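Appendix C: a fully annotated inverse folding record. The material below is reproduced so that readers can follow the format used throughout the book. The structure is listed first as tokens, followed by the designed sequence.
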């Protein structure tokens, strides 16, 4: 049987099952116990929404996940030789799910995903303006002590968004808007990585023309040899005239 290159034989692990397969044993146990409790609810919308959001987040940030207890999952993306947290999914069992992502709110409004509503932190969904989604902007000032699953996304000039979704339905305009926001954040992250990996184009060096050599100075003309001149005669002192002798 011919040898098969493992890189070709093993397809990339994506989707919900891929997320579980790549998780550490402890993190996988936390997820399974959390979903077991959600699946036991009378309405299956909670567990279905959790699975849908977790799958969407993992497909855009496909490194090994990390859990914080049974309530939150951290999603990572490559950052050179290291990794950087890009998303988080929180479920406190209070009828709401919270998705954390980088602050792309202005771009979401510019690209007509959301539209500012009248109530604070409420945004209408473009294409379904009767539905609004709750989006909070987080930074180091208004969140001085962030939770463990959020603290890596704040500080050093970084800001984040918290999108809150009710667990009453696993689909609909709110869920679609949340997935559009995380896709926008992942797109901007990929563009930032691409810009860092492309080397700067060096400006062409224009060589200056060599300066023309200056002509050698003409040899000095030989001067005629002059005879030494005798020193000028010293002027005689004026002659004193005495008294004239009388003559007889």
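Designed amino acids, in order:
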């Amino acid at each position: 049987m011919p040898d098969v290159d493992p890189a070709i034989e093993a397809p990339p692990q994506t989707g919900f099952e891929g997320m579980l397969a790549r998780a550490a044993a402890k993190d996988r146990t936390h997820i399974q116990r959390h979903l077991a409790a959600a699946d036991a609810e009378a309405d299956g919308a909670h567990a279905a929404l959790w699975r849908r959001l977790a799958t969407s987040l993992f497909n855009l940030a496909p490194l090994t996940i990390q859990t914080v207890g049974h309530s939150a999952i951290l999603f990572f993306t490559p950052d050179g030789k290291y990794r950087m947290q890009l998303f988080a999914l929180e479920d406190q069992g209070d009828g709401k799910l919270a998705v954390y992502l980088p602050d792309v709110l202005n771009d979401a409004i510019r690209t007509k995903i959301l539209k500012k509503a009248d109530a604070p932190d409420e945004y209408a969904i473009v294409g379904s303006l009767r539905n609004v989604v709750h989006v909070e902007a987080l930074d180091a000032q208004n969140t001085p002590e962030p939770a463990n699953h959020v603290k890596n996304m704040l500080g050093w000039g970084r800001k984040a968004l918290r999108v809150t979704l009710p667990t009453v339905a696993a689909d609909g305009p709110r869920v679609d808007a949340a997935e559009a926001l995380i896709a926008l954040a992942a797109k901007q992250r990929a563009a930032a990585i691409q810009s860092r990996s492309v080397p700067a184009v060096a400006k062409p060096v224009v060589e200056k023309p060599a300066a023309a050599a200056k002509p050698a100075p003409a040899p000095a003309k030989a001067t005629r040899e002059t005879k030494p001149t005798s020193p000028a005669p010293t002027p005689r002192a004026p002659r004193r005239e005495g008294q004239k002798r009388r003559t007889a």
